[in-house]
Amino acid sequence: MSYLSTSVTDSNNLGYFPTLTALEAAYPVGVIGAFAVIGATNTIWTWDEATTDWVNTGNAPPGAAGPTGPTGPASTVPGPTGPAGTGATGPTGTTGPTGANSTVVGPTGPTGPTGPIGTTGPTGANSTVPGPTGSTGSTGPTGATGPTGANSTVVGPTGATGPAGATGPTGANSTVAGPTGATGLTGLTGPTGPAGPTGATGPTGANSTVAGPTGSTGPTGATGPTGAASSDIQTFTGSGTWTKPASGTRVRVEIWGGGGSGSSSAGAAAGGGGGSYAMAEFDKTDLPATVAVTIGAGGAGTTGNNGNNGGNTTFGAFMTAYGGSGGLSLDGGGGGGFYGNAATASVGGTPLDGTAYERSFGGGNGNTAYAGTGGRSIYGGGGGGAEDGLGGDSFYGGGGGGANNRAGGNSVAGGNGGSNTGAGSAPGGGGSGNPSGTSGAGARGECVVTTY
Predict the structure, then answer these.
(1) Which ranges of 169-274 does DSSP label H, i.e. alpha helix?
(2) Pairing mode, if any, of strands 13-17 and 35-38?
(3) What is the value of pTM for the model shown?
(4) From CA 57, how far away is CA 421, in angstroms rounded?
(5) Strand, helix or coil at 286?
(6) Within 10 Å of residue 65's Cβ, how many Cβ atoms?
(7) Which residue, of 92, 109, 224, 310, has the fewest CB within 10 Å?
(8) Could you tell me which of 418, 437, 410 has the C-alpha nearest to residue 332?
(9) Could you tell me how many helices (H) and strands (E) the chain has, helices first?
(10) What is the tens place of the pLDDT at every residue in 293-313?
(11) What are the pLDDT digits (tens) for 64-116?
């Protein structure tokens, strides 16, 4: 498993400055929780509200960020379809070639001049249809009377026809049309006249009610981004059992220890320490199907006694976030350590590797000086304030409780320390001290398991 990167991205992280003078020039006045790295000392400096000055914590800056984890699986849900592209209208093409001859007959051209009469054809064969009877010729002269023959009882043969008489004069025009003569041969077709000029373009017709042909399909739009895979988040504010979900490949576990309660004694009291924060990531296959989750309780408020310690929060045997110490009669309780151990009285819990990570990972010490502010931390809990002192801040862990009527420490990811004799807020805030009644209780721890 890999641990959380020590780099912090928020408004309290002012970044790197080569010298204290450069930091003071950029930020002459800071705010509670603000911090920066000074290159000259290679340590983290924080703003001290009590002295209104930048203070060297002696803590080295966090190490470099670990390598980026593997990319999650691709989404099984398709991204939204991109918009259809609309291409611009292309330029007008060149005029096409002349079409084939039209199948529609054009208008008849004017009649050409009559051709010359052709030569007379040969005489046709004798007609089998008799022609009309010619007119009767004039009567010829009477012949001389022959001798009278004996009276025959048999009629003699008819005499031969005399020669035709001369043709009479032409008669007047007949009122009856004679027969139509044979049709003469068709004359040759005259040449085609030149084409007339093109007529003017007619007016544009009304919009057609028939849809024109569908245009070509535009290019396919770009594929939309892959949707983010959904995450399974299980949050525990009380002890229970984490069950491995079916989806996801990585598991992130974040836990907070319980905050210690403030103390209560006649005329004097101190704040309790905040619970620490811890985070780890696992391959889902490295974890069993279920893991027991134990949530550390906040220290209960007291009357006339030292405060009670906050409980530890565990994720099976894999992780522990230590609770803060209860406040003492005058001294603030220590904050829980990050992956190390619990606080002891006013001493904050040390980190896993002793002092190698300094107090950025260990819990803040509870202050033992009158009106002293509790120690600050990034991942451990903030220390409780001494008598009349402010609670210590933490970025991820719970804030330390304030003493008497002073404010508790603030936290970005955890709960704030109790103020004005009140209880700390969840998760992990230390309780406030109360010199004249029951002290403020420490807040419970918490566990958030995200599978993605």
Answers:
(1) none
(2) parallel
(3) 0.49
(4) 28
(5) helix
(6) 10
(7) 92
(8) 418
(9) 1, 13
(10) 999 999 999 998 999 999 999
(11) 545 655 665 665 766 565 455 454 545 655 655 655 665 766 676 676 676 67
